[in-house]
Amino acid sequence: MQVTERTAPTLDDVARAAGVSRATASRVINGAVPVSRPATEAVRKAVAMLGYRPNVAARALVTRRVGAVVVLVPETEERVFSDPFFSRAYHGALEAFRHTGIHVLLSMSHPHDGVDPMLAFFQSDHADGAIVISHHGYDFARAVANSNRPVVFVGNPGVPGLAYVDVDHARAAATATRHLLSRGAQTLGTVTGPMDMFAGVERLRGFQQAMAQAGRSGHLTAEGDFTFAGGEAAAFDLLSHHPEIDGLFVASDLMASGAIRAAERLGRRVPGDLMLVGFDDSLVATQSIPQLTTMENRPDLLARTAGQMLLEKLNGRQPESPVILPSRLVVRDSA
């Protein structure tokens, strides 16, 4: 019996099946815009039906690109794989590039080597652009920007002229603080994020602004590090020294879950003795006992938006920046 080898589908086959021009099919597959929604859907259906795969080698010769972008996370592997924020963010980045034929890599820092190997990786020819998540300070942001490759940040990099997407951390923190006050909390404290991160600084600022507007003092603070253990340690120290605190704004859900454990160690019940509001609306918020009242923060949407902005940069356009996404209060059991 003769076996006929099946030839791989071409871009022309995709265009024909989708009922669009070859140029339109190419723009959809390469992530270029603008392309109408009906045409985009038709091309994606044709790609799936035919099993089309872009010829990466041929594309690289023409475009001088490697066909990959990298998500740079200057955090250790332990931190990245223990915090659901990062898995949701990476999923969002994957979504942005799903139908483009562009691979999405992930690079993290090392406890001993720091961020230098990660920067070296990006500054070589391994990726055409980067999405940066969870950077500390401004030096890393400047170093990435100086690579002369397209970069978009999830979170304000603190360096003028760099593209980023973020939420209004101060406004969201103020909303969380006002919720605690509206529930009758008399003495409020906060467990902040790291003070070398824009999100940590801005969430503290929002807490203190809301307290000042209410005629209250916002000086009862303890610095955390966005981890469960860090949240537990900071909350334990704060509540031990200030047992009068009956309302606590914690700058991440993971830290808030640790703060609940700290309260339990001190014989405090949540929410009976201590009302608590977190930040992120992550899976941790619904798994905590009690479930967390928290501020919504969509890392998947943040990273997907950053990915779309990076695609624009890769296609020679300058995206609107900054993009500030909304946040809302999600009321559950802890306050």
TrEMBL record:
Entry keyword set: DNA-binding, Transcription, Transcription regulation
Signal peptide (UniProt feature, chain positions): none
GO molecular function: DNA-binding transcription factor activity; transcription cis-regulatory region binding
Residue stretches making up the HTH lacI-type domain: 9-63
Pfam families: LacI, Peripla_BP_3
Species for this entry: Micropruina glycogenica
Organism lineage: Bacteria, Bacillati, Actinomycetota, Actinomycetes, Propionibacteriales
Protein name as it appears in the record: HTH-type transcriptional regulator celR
Gene3D superfamilies listed in its UniProt record: 3.40.50.2300, lambda repressor-like DNA-binding domains
Database matches in SUPFAM superfamilies: lambda repressor-like DNA-binding domains, Periplasmic binding protein-like I
Xref: PROSITE patterns: HTH_LACI_1, HTH_LACI_2
InterPro entries hit by this protein: HTH_LacI, LacI/GalR-like_sensor, Lambda_DNA-bd_dom_sf, Peripla_BP_I
